[in-house]
Amino acid sequence: MSAELVSSGSRRESIADAGIRIISRDGVRALTHRAVDREAQLPQGSTSYHAKTRAALLELIVDVLTSRTKLDTEALGTDLNTEFADEDRPTVDQLAALLAALVDTLTARQDDMRARYALILELNDVPDLRQKLIDQSDVNAAARLVATRALAKTGLPNWGAHVDELLSLTDSLVFYRTAVNPTVDLQSILARYLRGATHA
After folding, report:
1. Radius of gyration of the chain (CA)
2. pTM given for the model
3. Who's near 80: CB < 8 A, 6+ residues apart?
4. Which among 23, 12, 33 is positioned nearest to 120, based on CA atoms?
5. Half-sphere exposure of residue 141, counting CA atoms within 13 Å on the CB side?
6. pLDDT tens digit sequence for 111-154
7. Contact 187, 97 (CB under 8 A)
8. Which residues fall within 8 angstroms of residue 34, CB to CB, at 6 or more apart?
């Protein structure tokens, strides 16, 4: 890969990071090309060069957000496979700890998560872009795969019926920890849900 391509990719990520910070701090409507140039401390016109329209700028930001979350989610799947062989069954507490670690990782990127929720609320008129942040996305597909593998490994009765519930719970915990209470006990909540699912 040429130095020029690496530099271009790095500049685009810097632009996306600046846009994420603006959205997180000031809201989606504060996002402009000039605001991003100032936030990223780039020469005026730099953002316009890499994302010519506001729609292109939003798409760049959404793509960076979803890429990071997908990588974090896939890492959880790797951890799950590494820690538990096919014949091993994680306990409820072990699985809850792994899922809590994922929520911790996501919420540590607070600007990313705040920007994600702001964009979900503001992009009703751009459904294709909004879908990348919610249920019809690569992130959701990766999360569904991890949740399916995790529940299957536990041997919970009728575990397939709990995949959507578990996805909804973990996403709700990301939101709650980001926007309401950063100290909520994630592992305890997840363990209680999994124990309840055992008896469902």
Report:
1. 19
2. 0.85
3. 90, 98, 146, 149, 150, 153
4. 23
5. 7
6. 999 999 999 999 999 999 999 898 767 788 888 888 888 887 77
7. yes
8. 44, 47
